[in-house]
Amino acid sequence: MNYARINTLTFASEEAGNTVQAHYVETAAATFDEAILLTFVRSGALNASLTSVYPDKEAFERSAPIRKERMKAHKDLITGVYVTEGAVALMHLKT
User: In this structure, which topology does domain 3-87 adopt according to CATH?
Assistant: First the structure.
């Protein structure tokens, strides 16, 4: 069963958010290579919601150390993080 992590971030400033966003957009697909879905939704100047979906909880767990290092690298740009995780009941993508 697919498993997801949802991160809600608060940035130190709009510029900090722009920096984090640009870095994520450029590198997330290669860095989180087991993810089957990655989203970065800017919900305001100082906020974003990031969702990553993995094929199973094991792949999700393997991504945790990578996420930890990335968060550490951006610690001065992010003032708040709220994280939830769980099994994915629906993942609909219409192209």
Answer: Alpha-Beta Plaits (3.30.70)
